[in-house]
Structure formats: C-alpha cells, structure tokens
From TrEMBL:
Full protein name: Uncharacterized protein
Species for this entry: Dendronalium phyllosphericum CENA369
Length: 115
C-alpha cells in the first residue's frame, strides 16, 4: 500500500503566474516534466468523496482518504485542502482483466484524460 500526503485545489482558468513559477523553479521535488498522455476510467461513486476507483494503464487503482489535514492558503486567492491518502495498485499479470474496452459502454465509469 502506498500512502501520500496531497494538497489539492481547483482553480478556474489559468494557473496564477506565481504558483506556476513555484512549481517550475522552487518546488522541492524532481524537475517538472511534461505529463504523459493517458486515458483513465473512474468508477462513478456519487456522495462518496473519500474513495476513488479507477482503471489506469491496465491496472485497477483503489484510493481512499485516510485523513483531512486542513486548508492551506497560498497568497490571497488560492487555498487548497491537504489530505492523507492510501492507494492499492492491483495488477493482473495475465493481462485478462482491467481493460478499458470491457467497461467502455457502462455508464458507471467516467472517462478522464490527461494530455
């Protein structure tokens, strides 16, 4: 099981320049890289904001929120929720399960893509 602390915020429009600068120049992690393109499918679970189930790159990922750590502010206009999450990655070595095509016609799964 993987445990992460995450800070999430949703902000309409372009990322403010000072926030983008921080991620590209000051962020204490590895140098920013362009994200890889991918398509994921998320199981639609209304009224359940503490659990996420998705199919990504041939595996099933189950993620649940273990703790809410509070709201943090970045400047005057940006706030984000800090949370602790746990994640299980379920691989199928036979490659017979966890295919997007198996669920593509189901309304219970929602497509999400990153370009």
């Amino acid at each position: 099981m993987l445990t992460t602390n995450e800070l999430r915020w949703f902000y309409p429009g372009r990322i403010p320049e000072d926030i983008e600068f921080w991620f590209w120049q000051i962020c204490p992690s590895d140098q920013m890289r362009s994200p890889q393109e991918r398509e994921d499918k998320y199981l639609y679970t209304p009224e359940c904001d503490y659990l996420g189930i998705k199919l990504r790159q041939g595996r099933l990922e189950v993620k649940w929120r273990k703790a809410e750590l509070g709201v943090f502010s970045f400047g005057e206009f940006v706030q984000g929720k800090a949370e602790k999450w746990g994640k299980w990655l379920c691989d199928d070595p036979t490659k017979e399960s966890f295919h997007l095509a198996q669920i593509s016609s189901s309304s219970s799964w929602i497509k999400g893509s990153r370009e």
